[in-house]
Structures are given as structure tokens and as C-alpha cells.
């Protein structure tokens, strides 16, 4: 448990975290990325429209600042310039080059993100950066034009045999053949990601570095000295549970987060993948759970739904615009993720269940203690936040003021517990303070 003064020192207490001097990466990144909805169907127009919509829909003012280009932006055939070796943008998708997109994005006060891969080819089969790290870091930096920040998402496909890891750890199939005590920070995966880290560090600009290593090689154990965030699982898919090919529904991801939430802090964030809010046929309740939990986990908030139709999809826009949840995710004083305080669903703590992950979560912010109650069931259930079970509230008091983060309303003062009906697949999000509105336990943190 860290003291408030310790937390306020912030950067100083994070000796190994990769926090850039200007504060880039201290908090979870917020923005938009093309992959979840557009996959390879991208063009200059998509990103320029998104940038304008981020402003017009009020999302920029809420903190969504990155406009991130994902896979398939370069020329698949030509790959690299024969003379300079630089990556060549696809001239049909980006007729004026990436530079022009950066200019448009920056002119709106937003930041540009780009994508590459720590292998020979990206997952879509475009040129990767392995062996070209210095040149590509310099190229991305050059394309950024001015002093605005940038983001690099660095994927993990097409690793040549000479870079294969000695041992294998894949979180979805957790057979781990490494000897006990093996330091995964010495793995080839860690080395491949570190080469790009070093190249980025040598640029005269700050680049937010998002490792897309899918939880392989226990990236959570070395990610915080290498990047600002690291993907923890396979690709997300807009479904509640289960798996389709290599993509996963929300519940298996939350299950993994139930077990590994504690690797997150200022400057070092587990990345539970980009948001699918507004995509596929997720129900409103499922969309609410997705957003509330990603905020609670302090995962990056990277929207993946088309923005040109978002004004017409008001319930989705409202979810993505929930300021109280965003404030929790971006809290300036408390860096830790929320943690499960009870598993629920009649299960002992710290057990894995890909359909029914931990249901009772607690976190803290400058505003108070926050409780998130996830209903994994297919029917509405009554869920009870019993104060004596919640670590920072255990000591009791004269009663707590319970506030609904979804509606912005105070729900009243309760002495022993607060109970409400949570719809199927919905998540209640509560702020709990003393009856006078003061923080009930400012010294408590999940870590
Ligand atoms: C995957 C990655 C996705 C997306 C895709 C592009 O490896 O996890 O988020 O970037 O590659 O091909």
C-alpha cells in the first residue's frame, strides 16, 4: 500500500517504467485505431474524417488524442525504396503520403499513430521492421513533421527462425516449457522489442510505444522497461464470450485480466486490446461492460468503431463519452488498475473461468473508492456490494454515499451494503465516498 505522498511523487517511484520525460505513456493512451472495424480497407480519407469527428463529437476534449493507422498502410509489392530503404506508403490509399495525414491530424491538435511489426512481415503480409529498426524509427519520426507526439504499435507476426524463442509461453495455451526462474526479459521476443525501443529513444521526439506481443514470452514481466503498454492476449472480437479463429470475445480477456491486473501502473499498462464498443452485435449492456471494465483496468482506450456514423448511434457515443469512467482510467494520482475483491459465481478467488471471470472489482481514484459489479450471467441478477468485503471500506463508518457513474446520480447513504439489479452482461459502476463526500480511504491502493 503506497502513501498518498508516495503516489504524488509519481514518476520518481517508477525506476524501471518507461515513462518519457514529457509524460507520454504515464496514463493509458486514448484515441482511435482503424483495425477493429476497417482492417485493410483504409485510406487517407478514413483518418482525416476520424480526426475531424474526434473534434466534432467532443471526444478530443475528453482526451481521445491519437489517430492510429494499423496494418496494411504500406505498399505490399514495392515494400521499401530501392535507394533509401525507407518503407513506401501505398500510393492508392495514401496518395499524398503519411506526411500529409500527419499534417492534417496535427492541425486539429491530435497525434498520429503508425503500425509496424517485429518480424520480416506484418500480420497482413506487408514489410516488417525487423533488421530495419533504426531506419524505420527515423522514418516514422520524420513523417511526424512537428513536435507532436506519435504512437507506434509494434506487432509480432512473421518472426524468422533465427529469432525464435528458446522457450515458449502463449497465454491462451499456458504450457510453459521454461525452467523455473527463467528470466523472460532475456528471451528473443524481449530483445526484438528492445531493439525498436532503443531506436525510438534515439529520435528527437517522444513516441508512445505499444508492444503488440499478445502476452507471449510473459511480456508483462519485461514490458514496463521496454514500452508504455503491452498487449496481453490474442485479438479481440465483438462478442461476449468464446473464440472465433484467433479472435476472442470479451469474457476470456477479462478472465486473464482478473489474474494479471497488477502489472499495470503509471507508465506501464497491460493492454487488453482496442475497444470494440459499437461494433458487431454487442448489446448496449455488453458495450457498457466492455467500456467500464477497460476503464477500470486502466487499459488504453482506443476506439475501433467508425466515427462518421457515431452521432447517429447516440447510446454508443454516450458510453464512449462517460467522463466519470474516463476520469478513473486517467486518474492523475492513483495509477493501479482496479482489482477483483471477490470472484462471485460461487467460485474461489484466483481461479480461471473464460465464461465467468471475476465479477466484483474495486479501485481507487481522487474521487473515492470505485466498485464495478459485472454480471456475467445471461439473466438479470441482484448484486450486492457488501462494504465489509471491500478492502478499503472494511473498517466501516457512519455509512457510505453511493454514486452511480453511469447516470451521474447519488443513490443515497448506505450502512452495510448497496444492492441493485444488474441486467444480463451489464456492469454497475459506483463511486463510494464518506457520507460527506470525502474520500473514505485515500491511503489505500490495490497494489
Ligand atoms: C494482429 C494484432 C491486431 C492487428 C492485426 C493487423 O496481430 O493483434 O490488433 O494489428 O494484427 O494485421
Descriptive overview:
- With 447 residues, this protein is α/β, with parallel strands linked by helices.
- Helices cover 23% and strands 20% of the residues.
- The protein has helices spanning 4-9, 35-38, 44-56, 97-107, 133-143, 188-201, 219-222, 250-260, 284-296, 314-320, 323-329, and strands at 30-33, 66-68, 111-117, 150-155, 207-211, 229-231, 235-236, 243-244, 247-248, 269-271, 301-303, 339-342, 360-365, 368-374, 381-386, 400-404, 409-414, 417-422, 427-434.
- An 8-stranded parallel β-sheet has the order 10-6-5-4-3-2-1-11.
- A hairpin with a 2-residue loop joins strand 8 and strand 9 (247-248).
- Helix 3 runs parallel beside helix 4 (97-107) and helix 5 crosses helix 6 (188-201).
- InterPro entries: Aldolase_TIM, GH, Glyco_hydro_27, Glyco_hydro_27/36_CS, Glyco_hydro_b, Melibiase_C.
- Residues 1-17 form the signal peptide.
- Belongs to the glycosyl hydrolase 27 family.
Amino acid at each position: 500500500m503506497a502513501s498518498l505522498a508516495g503516489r504524488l511523487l509519481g514518476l520518481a517511484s517508477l525506476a524501471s517504467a518507461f515513462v518519457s520525460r514529457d509524460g507520454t505513456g504515464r496514463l493509458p493512451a486514448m484515441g482511435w485505431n482503424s483495425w477493429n472495424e476497417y482492417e485493410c480497407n483504409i485510406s487517407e480519407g478514413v483518418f482525416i474524417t476520424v480526426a475531424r469527428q474526434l473534434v466534432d463529437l467532443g471526444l478530443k476534449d475528453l482526451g481521445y488524442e491519437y489517430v492510429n493507422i494499423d496494418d496494411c498502410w504500406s505498399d505490399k509489392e514495392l515494400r521499401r525504396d530501392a535507394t533509401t530503404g525507407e518503407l513506401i506508403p501505398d500510393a492508392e490509399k495514401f496518395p499524398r503520403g503519411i506526411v500529409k495525414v500527419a499534417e492534417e491530424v496535427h492541425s486539429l491538435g491530435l497525434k498520429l499513430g503508425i503500425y509496424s511489426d517485429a518480424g520480416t512481415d506484418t500480420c497482413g503480409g506487408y514489410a516488417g521492421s525487423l533488421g530495419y529498426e533504426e531506419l524505420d524509427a527515423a522514418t516514422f519520426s520524420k513523417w511526424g513533421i512537428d513536435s507532436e507526439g506519435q504512437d507506434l504499435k509494434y506487432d509480432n507476426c512473421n518472426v524468422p527462425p533465427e529469432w525464435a524463442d528458446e522457450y515458449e509461453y502463449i497465454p491462451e495455451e499456458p504450457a510453459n516449457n521454461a525452467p523455473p526462474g527463467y528470466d523472460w526479459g532475456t528471451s528473443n521476443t524481449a530483445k526484438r522489442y528492445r531493439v525498436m525501443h532503443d531506436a525510438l529513444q534515439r529520435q528527437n521526439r517522444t513516441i508512445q510505444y505499444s508492444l503488440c506481443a499478445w502476452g507471449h514470452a510473459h511480456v508483462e514481466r519485461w514490458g514496463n522497461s521496454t514500452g508504455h503498454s503491452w498487449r496481453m492476449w490474442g485479438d479481440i472480437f465483438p462478442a461476449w464470450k468464446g473464440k472465433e479463429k484467433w479472435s476472442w470475445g470479451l469474457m476470456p480477456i477479462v478472465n486473464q485480466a482478473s489474474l494479471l491486473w497488477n502489472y499495470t501502473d503509471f507508465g506501464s499498462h497491460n493492454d487488453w486490446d482496442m475497444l470494440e464498443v459499437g461494433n458487431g452485435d454487442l448489446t448496449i449492456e455488453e458495450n457498457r461492460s466492455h467500456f467500464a471494465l477497460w476503464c477500470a483496468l486502466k487499459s488504453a482506450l482506443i476506439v475501433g468503431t467508425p466515427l462518421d456514423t457515431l452521432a447517429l448511434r447516440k447510446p454508443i457515443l454516450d458510453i464512449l463519452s462517460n467522463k466519470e469512467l474516463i476520469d478513473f482510467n486517467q486518474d492523475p494520482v492513483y495509477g493501479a488498475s482496479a482489482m477483483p475483491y471477490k470472484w462471485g459465481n460461487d467460485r474461489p478467488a484466483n481461479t480461471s473461468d473464460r465464461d465467468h471471470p471475476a465479477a466484483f472489482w474495486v479501485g481507487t481514484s481522487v474521487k473515492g473508492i470505485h466498485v464495478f459489479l459485472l454480471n456475467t450471467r445471461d439473466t438479470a441478477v441482484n448484486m450486492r456490494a457488501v462494504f465489509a468485503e471491500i478492502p478499503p471500506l472494511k473498517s466501516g463508518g457512519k455509512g457510505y454515499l453511493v454514486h452511480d457513474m453511469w447516470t451521474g446520480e447519488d443513490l443515497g447513504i448506505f450502512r452495510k451494503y448497496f444492492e441493485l439489479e444488474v441486467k444480463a452482461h451489464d456492469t454497475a459502476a459506483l463511486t463510494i465516498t464518506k457520507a460527506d463526500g470525502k474520500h473514505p480511504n485515500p491511503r489505500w491502493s490495490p497494489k
